[in-house]
Specification:
alpha+beta; 14 helices; Beta-galactosidase, Chain A, domain 5; eight-stranded antiparallel β-sheet; 662 residues
Length: 662
């Protein structure tokens, strides 16, 4: 079965640029689709370093860059290179291909020469009789970005100036003109032209080299002051920054040619220009494109560890996101070895014997606010054990038993096991599940007491680890079996809402909160959770009727007085909406599992294929082209928001697509 050739326009976003998107019809090599000039692109390497920007090359986020180094060796990721400007002088006229917003004007505005964009990414420009193709990619084995320019149509000498602009600052900060930056440049022209600068102490240098052409480097270090970021302004953050330029490469081109520039933290290993590996063209299905997109999130960490980047551009490693993503990123893609490596890496970085929300990375400390991460670790290990018989599983199963014992022993003093075996979360200024938004030091969605998802994961985890403990720790096995039995006897009694026909999201010990949320899906799909089939069917119907949208599941019913229809505005406005209606695509994985288990695979295919079609349109024409975003507005037209490229969105949509397309 081949997915249909989906190209619906899902929202009313402005369009106008031609973009090349892959076709599901093998008889066509490519298709032209429409995308907004401010649609984003993303390019990554094996270490999670990345380049990101918009099609029209106007930076709208402080995160847009040609090179952000994931692990610079000190502090947070380093946003190193902002842009490489191109100035062409042809027949006495000057043409610039880049673009900046100065707050009151856009100058230059190179998009006026852009005729086509390919998400590889590749830009095709036409001006003064010239065709210029600009291609960009990152090295896997180094923190370096390559840009290749192919120029055709030359009838007279053309002067080309290429000017790097740098930031060299932590990813979430801004930089301003200052006297501390070292603007000196060392130029070496032994075989190829190379310019090296060391802008600050204790951070990597910037090494820029020219390949495939002869030229000179003209030093003229100075600052560009006042570049405006439209989207940072809309998100309520500081929105103006300064760039430093050390100088420019000057090249004379007298015939059609191709040349490259490399910018990185180390010199190139070869004077020859790197060759860009061609991407497959023609006959590309949505499933194949999702498979490629998933590669952006699996990364090799310093010290040979394996991790998952939760999302681009501002997320790093998040344990919860990694574990929810693991089935789609690894198991559904037949990469069980990567799954084992992710689990092993997390097991080596426990905090107080539990899986932290954000694991320690270099000199950046861990964040421990996530009791669900430890439960998800057990769940992910159980899923992985079904896909491989690797001897490495033994140590991971032991780690799971340790986690269960630590939870029983109240390693997190905010979480207790009650006499009936349930997990109970104390009331306080914390959020220990994935609904973790905080405003003024208080959780927006307080899930104190008995959260349904935690207890479903806990019960299923007790049953799973109880089986392992019979061989590994027989004395512990009896405790786990007894706790699971008591919990199973009372689970449905605790969470089922007879009058509403679904499971409550939390229970404070005396009263259920009675809100319709998607977290109950865990109880519908996890093995060992005892619910009557008729109740499962009713709960699924409630989720379908109130929470399901064409791009994912709402986090709260529209009937609820606290429902927020859009995810927009400053940080507080967005946090108040984050889990109060906002749609999350990753929840489609749980939903598809529930439909498949309750209604069968045929019903799942019929229901999920139109949703996959809608997400395919998003994937190819809006947000970050070739990725799936973090969230969407709760109300139509469900505009995208949050991080434009999110691991668990891609992973779970891939997993659903693979289930739906045998």
């Amino acid at each position: 079965m081949i997915l249909p050739n989906w190209f619906p326009t899902r929202s009313d976003s402005p369009t106008g640029l031609r973009t090349r998107a892959s076709s599901d019809d093998a008889s066509e090599e490519t298709q032209v689709s429409q995308a907004a000039p401010d649609a984003e692109w993303l390019c990554t390497n094996a270490g999670g370093s990345f380049a990101m920007g918009t099609i029209d090359r106007r930076p709208r986020r402080k995160y847009h860059s040609l090179l952000t180094v994931r692990e610079p060796g000190i502090g947070e990721p380093l946003n190193l290179v902002a842009e490489l400007e191109e100035w062409f002088e042809v027949g006495g006229e000057t043409f610039a291909l880049h673009s900046y917003d100065w707050g009151n004007a856009v100058e230059p505005n190179g998009v006026q020469y852009l005729v086509e964009f390919d998400p590889q990414p590749r830009w095709t420009y036409h001006f003064a009789g010239l065709d210029v193709i600009r291609e960009l990619w990152l090295e896997d084995g180094a923190d370096a970005v390559w840009l290749r320019y192919s120029v055709e149509g030359i009838t007279e000498p053309v002067q080309l100036r290429l000017r790097p602009l740098i930031r060299c600052r932590p990813i979430h900060k801004l930089t301003f003109a200052n006297p501390f930056l070292n603007g000196e440049v060392d130029v070496d022209d032994a075989g190829f032209l190379q310019a090296t600068m060391r802008p600050y102490k204790n951070v990597p240098p910037l090494v820029t080299s020219l390949h495939g052409a002869r030229g000179t480097f003209r030093r003229d270090g100075h600052w560009y002051e006042g570049v405006h970021y439209e989207w940072e302004n809309a998100r309520g953050y500081e929105d103006t920054e300064d760039f430093f330029t050390p100088g420019e490469f000057c090249i004379t081109i007298d015939r059609d040619t191709s040349l490259s520039v490399r910018l990185g933290t180390t010199p190139t290993r070869s004077p020859d220009p790197q060759v860009l590996t061609s991407l497959p063209s023609g006959g590309r299905s949505f499933l194949e494109e999702l498979d490629d997109a998933a590669d952006a999130y699996l990364v090799k960490l310093q010290g040979d560890g394996t991790g998952v980047i939760a999302g681009y551009p501002w997320f790093g490693e998040w344990s919860r996101d990694a574990l929810i993503s693991l089935p789609g990123l690894c198991l559904a893609r037949d990469r069980a070895s990567d799954a084992l490596a992710i689990l092993e890496s997390l097991a080596e970085r426990l905090e107080n014997g539990l899986v932290p929300n954000i694991p320690k990375s270099g000199d950046v400390p861990a964040n421990a606010n996530a009791i669900d991460a430890s439960l998800l670790f057990v769940w992910a290990t159980a899923l992985t054990s079904r896909r491989t018989r690797s001897r490495r599983l033994g140590a991971l199963q032991e780690a799971c038993l340790d986690l269960i014992e630590r939870i029983i022993g109240e390693a997190d003093a905010r979480v207790h096991v009650d006499p009936q075996g349930f997990l109970f979360v104390d009331q306080g200024p914390w959020a220990l599940t994935w609904m973790d938004a905080m405003v003024d030091g208080r959780p927006v969605t307080p899930r104190w007491g008995y959260p349904v998802d935690l207890n479903a994961l806990w019960l299923s985890g007790l049953i799973t680890t109880g089986r392992w403990a019979k061989k590994l720790r027989p004395k512990l096995a009896k405790t786990l079996e007894e706790t699971a039995r008591k919990l199973a006897d009372h689970f449905e009694e605790k969470f089922w809402l007879q009058d509403q026909g679904f499971l409550t999201d939390t229970h404070d010990g005396e009263n259920p909160d009675c809100r319709l949320r998607p977290n109950q899906l865990w109880a519908l799909v996890l093995p060992g959770v005892p619910l009557e089939k008729s109740h499962k069917r009713q709960a699924l119907h409630a989720v379908r009727s109130k929470l399901l949208t064409p791009v994912g599941l709402r986090t709260l019913s529209p009937d609820d007085p606290d429902y927020r229809p859009v995810y927009r505005g400053g940080q507080t406005d967005r946090d108040l909406a984050y889990h109060q209606g906002t749609v999350w695509p990753w929840l489609l994985g749980l939903y598809a599992d529930a439909v498949r288990a309750i209604d069968g695979p045929t019903a799942m295919n019929a229901e999920l294929l139109p949703i996959l079609a809608s997400l395919c349109a998003h994937f190819r024409t809006e947000g970050c082209i070739g990725q799936i975003g973090e969230v969407f507005d709760a109300d139509p037209p469900h505009l995208p928001g949050g991080a434009p490229a999110q691991a668990w969105s891609v992973a779970e949509v891939f997993r659903v697509a693979k289930m739906a397309v045998p």
